[in-house]
């Protein structure tokens, strides 16, 4: 794992916020609490957790045009923010949350590989802080968060299994994967693909073992940041 840093309370107005740094990938995560839910679950008594994701124009080595200037989100952005939302909901008891919505905004300040994984890991911390405020106010009876959720990338680079790929490793990896797990070690989602070379079941198991190790370190960092 690259060096992990999670600083909480970095914005004044959000119900929960953190700046997560995984190596040279830095993501600002904020949680916004609203006493409403999307129309498709209105009246069900269930809560909702969703996410939005974006990269600042100079998060990478060349300037990217803001998607707002283009008038629409790119396919990569839509895919990643849906992934973040799905991942975080896996650790939420939506009945206990009640009919309210928490939106997690993940803004990449600096990118060096693994931005979606850092967004999920930091997004959970922001979510935890927002839920803590709900519980302190007595707005929920029991803790809606059932477990930690964190994510890490793994791949086959130069013929070797590698944990927590940075951008140079990610861009040249023969096999690339993103692994989302709970604190208890249960799988939430796995995204794996061959990038020019196929992989074996044994190699997949090796990467999963690495991911479990990495997520364990990320969960420890989450616990340290929110205790």
TrEMBL record:
CDD domains, per database record: RNase_PH_bact
Pfam (any one): RNase_PH
Catalyzed chemical reaction(s): tRNA(n+1) + phosphate = tRNA(n) + a ribonucleoside 5'-diphosphate
Ranges for domain Exoribonuclease phosphorolytic: 1-130, 149-214
Keywords: Nucleotidyltransferase, RNA-binding, rRNA processing, Transferase, tRNA processing, tRNA-binding
Molecular function as annotated in GO: 3'-5'-RNA exonuclease activity; tRNA binding; tRNA nucleotidyltransferase activity
GO BP: any one term: rRNA catabolic process
UniProt-listed Gene3D superfamilies: GHMP Kinase, N-terminal domain
Homology family: Belongs to the RNase PH family.
HAMAP family: RNase_PH
Subunit structure and binding partners: Homohexameric ring arranged as a trimer of dimers.
Described function: Phosphorolytic 3'-5' exoribonuclease that plays an important role in tRNA 3'-end maturation. Removes nucleotide residues following the 3'-CCA terminus of tRNAs; can also add nucleotides to the ends of RNA molecules by using nucleoside diphosphates as substrates, but this may not be physiologically important. Probably plays a role in initiation of 16S rRNA degradation (leading to ribosome degradation) during starvation.
Name of the protein described by the UniProt record: Ribonuclease PH
Gene this protein is translated from: rph
């Amino acid at each position: 794992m690259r060096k992990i840093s999670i600083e909480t309370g970095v914005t004044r107005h959000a119900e929960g916020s953190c700046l997560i740094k995984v190596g040279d990938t830095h993501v600002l995560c904020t949680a916004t609490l609203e006493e409403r839910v999307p129309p498709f679950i209105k009246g069900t008594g269930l809560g909702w957790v969703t996410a939005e994701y974006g990269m600042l124009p100079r998060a990478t080595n060349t300037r990217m045009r803001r998607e707002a200037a283009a008038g629409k989100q790119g396919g990569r952005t839509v895919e990643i923010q849906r992934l973040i939302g799905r991942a975080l909901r896996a650790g939420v008891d939506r009945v206990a949350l009640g009919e309210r919505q928490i939106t997690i905004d993940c803004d990449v300040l600096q990118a060096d590989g693994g931005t979606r994984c850092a967004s999920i890991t930091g997004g959970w911390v922001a979510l935890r802080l927002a839920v803590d405020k709900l519980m302190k106010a007595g707005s929920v009876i029991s803790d809606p968060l059932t477990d930690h959720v964190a994510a890490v990338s793994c791949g086959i680079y130069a013929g070797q299994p590698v944990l927590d790929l940075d951008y140079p490793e990610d861009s040249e990896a023969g096999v690339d994967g993103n692994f989302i797990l709970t604190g208890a070690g249960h799988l939430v989602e796995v995204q794996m693909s061959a990038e020019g070379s196929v992989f074996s079941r044994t190699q997949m198991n090796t990467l999963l073992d690495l991911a479990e190790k990495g997520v364990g370190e990320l969960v420890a960092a989450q616990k340290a940041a929110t205790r």
